[in-house]
Structure formats: structure tokens, C-alpha cells
Specification:
The protein is mainly alpha-helical and 203 residues long. It contains eight helices and five strands. It is globular.
Length: 203
Amino acid sequence: MLEKEPLQFRVFFTLMIYSGFRRGEMLGLEWKDVDFENNIISIRRTSNYLKQIGTYTDTTKTKRSQRTLKFPEQIMELLKLYKEDQDMQALKYGDKWIDSDRLFVKWNGEPMYNGIPYSWFKRFCDRNDIPFHGIHSFRHTFASLLVNQGVDIVTVSGALGHSVVSTTSNIYCHMLDEARAKITDAITASLNFADKKIEPKGA
């Protein structure tokens, strides 16, 4: 559904679903954080907003929030396309362009205001008759997918940038319980199938 949307927002929300990055982390991304050779992206800062001072750059929420994730080739190709598009925009605006090195920017290269992704996604959901649950829902979806695929909680916690593993387990405890139940059911079904195969004839 995002295929027909502006490239900037297509990249933003595709990257969110594949990363679980927080909104401030997304907006703080700079091109120097993207390693196209190794297909990895690093979180090193956040971009935040206060009415008194406007948009400003800050450190990550916790030390463990500074992390690196590896991405599939198709995501990196989308980012390359986006980089080319942004470079063309910089040439178009010439002296009016402000080189902030940020991935997500205003028309003139300045860091994007924090409320823009939220308001755009709200309008997108309204246009397509999709329930709107806010931007943070992408982070929960990312974590849920990892848990349901059987990824261990320590790895999930690291990917989310939580300061302690207990934070992750407390938030996603019900999903962990469901995932463990699925594992138990799968093992039981497998063992039952094996037992049936080795039953002697006439038993």
C-alpha cells in the first residue's frame, strides 16, 4: 500500500517496520550512519522537539539504545534510491539547501519536524480506512514478529535498544507466553507423530 506514496515516507515507514527504531532515532539518522557495503544502519543520536527551542539533536534514550542492525538487500536498495532522490533535490535548491546529512528532512534539507511523520501517517490511515494506532505501533509490531518467530528475548531487547532485558519481557510477556505455548504444541505434535510411526503393527 505504501508503494504509491512519496518516497520519503515510504522509506521512513518501511524502515520502521524492519527496525523497531523509535521516532526520535529515525529522525536522528544521518547518511554517515548507513553502511551500504555491509547493509547495516547504526543508531547514534535522536532528534527531538521542544516548543521553547524547536528541533534539536540529543543523545539516545539509554546507552544500549546505541545499536546497529543489519537489513535485507531490498531495504538498502530502497535507501540508495532515496539517497539519489535527495541528492537531486539538493541540486535543485542550490544555495537554499542546508546540508544536515539527515535522512529525513524538510524541503530545504533541514531536519524534519518530529510531528510530520505522525500527521502524515494519520492522514494515510484515514485515506485508506485503516485503524490508526500511532507510530509507536510499528515498534510493537517489529518486536511481536521477532517474538513469534522464536527469537530469544535477549536478542529482541538488544534490537529494541532497551536498557535492561526485563523491560522487554514485561512489555511482551503475553506474547512470550504465546510463543512458548506454540513451541510446546509443536514439540508435542512432533513427538506424537514420531510415536505413531514407530508403533508395531497389531499393537
